[in-house]
């Protein structure tokens, strides 16, 4: 009896179960194959790397057939199809249907990271969740035999139906962004050595003072009751892949319409359990104004103006709060050239070959504008 060419996209529920659950547990091998079943060459056109493997069972054999490392180790060509096709020949001698068993095992498209792990290509995921679960399972077996460690699986938001499939295989949430969720899997025994999700958020405040000794201040539309009527410096959060000094200039421009240039990082605050148990780094930057006309951001800002420095300092919230008071005193000391902040300098490290910003005090008077330091 011959059974040919059924597509994974159009399988019935029972066929899906037989095809997708051929393992008794993770990395434990395949279920026992009926003794009289014989398998002839067949093929799988699932998109990915094809690993060829042959299995047969004979009445004289009393052991289960498990895939050997040689059987799973030979890599074939990549095929572009979206559906898996299996060809099974033979019966188990009783007229009943034999177990469905693919002759070729597919591994998810992925590339190695520099730490002995694997990053799955999110653009080359199987279209069918059942096929994804089956291929993910065989991929984990393959990567385990290759000695891989951490597996990174990035699932775009439009492929959210694959998340529970990965969780069932043992993947864990790592982090999520607007367009994707990242899951991870640690193969070796012992504690997971993959880095945790980002532990900090980074904020900036722009201290902008003009030649008339006036500070650029704003009142936000949304604030805590204790901050009612409080005039504050423009603040915000650093964007992904944004420099601290660039973020400060951008936030001031967005909230007030004032163009500025970065001078120094005056100080920074480190606080914990600020938002969703994350820590917070807040950098106070001194900026030099390049324009004077204020244009308020109607979405976030209620009002903005130039306020005399003395009037700004005398606000009760600043006088009553030790941290605010200290920050302002540092800014005033910098204006009087009695304090030196951190300038930004572009450097390249041989460790990673990347251009980075290094913030430090410059001791060379020709390269620094704080002559009294």
UniProtKB/TrEMBL annotation:
Q: Which InterPro entries match?
A: NUDIX_hydrolase-like_dom_sf, Nudix_hydrolase6-like, NUDIX_hydrolase_CS, NUDIX_hydrolase_dom, Pre-Nudix
Quote any Pfam family the record assigns: NUDIX
Outline the extent of the Nudix hydrolase domain.
199-334
- Gene Ontology terms, MF aspect: hydrolase activity
What PROSITE patterns has UniProt attached to this entry?
NUDIX (PS51462), NUDIX_BOX (PS00893)
Q: Print the keywords alphabetically.
A: Hydrolase
Query: Does the keyword section mention Glycoprotein?
Result: no
User: What family name appears in the similarity comment?
Assistant: Belongs to the Nudix hydrolase family.
Recorded protein name is Nudix hydrolase 8 isoform X2
Cite the source lineage: Eukaryota, Viridiplantae, Streptophyta, Embryophyta, Tracheophyta
């Amino acid at each position: 009896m011959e059974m040919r060419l059924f597509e994974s996209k159009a399988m019935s529920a029972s066929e899906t179960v037989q095809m997708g659950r051929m393992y008794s547990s993770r990395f434990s091998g395949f279920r026992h194959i009926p003794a009289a079943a014989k398998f002839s060459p067949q093929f799988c056109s699932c998109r990915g790397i094809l690993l060829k493997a042959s299995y047969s069972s004979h009445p004289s054999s009393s052991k289960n057939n498990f895939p050997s490392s040689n059987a799973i180790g030979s890599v074939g060509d990549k095929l572009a199809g979206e559906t898996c096709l299996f060809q099974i020949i033979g019966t188990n001698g009783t007229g009943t249907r034999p177990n469905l068993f693919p002759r070729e095992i597919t591994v998810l498209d992925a590339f190695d990271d520099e730490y002995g792990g694997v990053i799955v290509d999110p653009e080359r995921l199987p279209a069918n969740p059942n096929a994804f679960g089956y291929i993910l399972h065989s991929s984990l077996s393959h990567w385990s035999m290759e000695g891989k460690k951490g597996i990174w699986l990035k699932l775009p938001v439009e492929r959210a139906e694959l998340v529970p499939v990965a969780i069932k295989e043992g993947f864990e949430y790592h982090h999520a962004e607007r367009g994707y969720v990242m899951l991870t899997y640690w193969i070796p025994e012992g504690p997971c050595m993959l880095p945790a999700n980002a532990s900090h958020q980074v904020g900036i405040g722009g201290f902008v003072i003009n030649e008339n000794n006036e500070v650029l201040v704003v009142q936000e539309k949304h604030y805590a009751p204790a901050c009612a009527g409080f005039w504050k410096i423009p603040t915000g959060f650093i964007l992904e892949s944004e420099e601290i000094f660039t973020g400060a200039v951008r936030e001031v421009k967005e909230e007030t319409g004032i163009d500025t240039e970065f001078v120094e990082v005056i100080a920074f605050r480190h606080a914990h359990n600020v938002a969703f148990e994350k820590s917070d780094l807040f950098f106070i930057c001194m900026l030099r104004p390049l324009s004077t006309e204020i244009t308020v951001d109607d979405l976030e800002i209620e009002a903005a103006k130039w306020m005399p420095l003395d009037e700004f300092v005398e606000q009760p919230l600043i006088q009553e709060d030790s941290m605010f008071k200290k920050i302002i005193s540092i800014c005033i000391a910098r204006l009087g050239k009695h304090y030196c902040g951190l300038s930004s300098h572009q450097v390249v490290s041989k460790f990673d070959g990347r251009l980075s910003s290094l913030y430090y005090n410059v001791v060379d008077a020709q390269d620094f504008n704080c002559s009294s330091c």
